[in-house]
Design brief:
The chain is α/β, with parallel strands linked by helices. The chain has helices spanning about 1-15, 40-45, 50-60, 135-155; strands at about 30-35, 65-70, 75-85, 90-105, 115-130. The protein has a single domain, classed as 2-Layer Sandwich (Double Stranded RNA Binding Domain), CATH 3.30.160. The chain has a 5-stranded mixed beta sheet. The longest helix is centred in the C-terminal third of the chain and has 23 residues, at about 135-155.
Length: about 160
């Protein structure tokens, strides 16, 4: 029992450190789409929903000069993935990953055919709580990550 709690504490301590994306290449981005990965049974039982994740991203972006687009692929998009583990004691532990994907050209002056979609900004974190407060904790973390994305976008634009 004691060893399991120690492992959970170590897991959470490592996850608290947010990991920055490789390059902050947000210049020229004027609008973004939002793509939220489907949530699984554990996430749903801990109060996480696709709509809740979308709202935690959409609301901060809508309060910025960055425009939300519902256009087809080709537009830069914010990708969100929340993976949750429901613990035997009823607690919830979740991994949150947020990134901005866009076309990047493989060489200076390259044509559209010589480009790839790549993550140009990203953050990851781990959160934990009980099902009664886990959606709020996860939602706050997603909102905070989205605000960091907006701040990076403002610096580049």
């Amino acid at each position: 029992m004691r060893g399991r709690w120690r492992n959970i504490v170590i897991f959470l301590a490592l996850g608290v450190i947010s990991i920055a994306g490789h390059a902050q290449k947000l210049n020229g981005v004027r609008s973004v789409g939002i793509l939220v990965e489907e949530v699984d049974q554990d996430a749903a039982s801990c109060g996480i929903s696709k709509d809740g994740i979308d709202a935690a991203i959409r609301i901060p972006i809508s309060n910025s000069r960055l425009v939300i687009s519902n256009s087809p692929p080709g537009v830069p998009y914010v990708y969100a993935q929340v993976t949750v583990l429901k613990l035997g004691n009823g607690g919830c532990v979740g991994s949150i990953h947020l990134e901005l994907n866009r076309f990047v050209w493989l060489a200076p002056g390259a044509r559209q055919l010589e480009s790839q979609i790549a993550a140009v900004w990203g953050r990851s974190s781990v959160v934990a709580g009980l099902p009664t407060n886990f959606p709020r904790i996860a939602g706050n973390m997603i909102e905070d990550m989205t605000k960091l994305l907006i701040a990076a976008w403002l610096k580049d634009n």
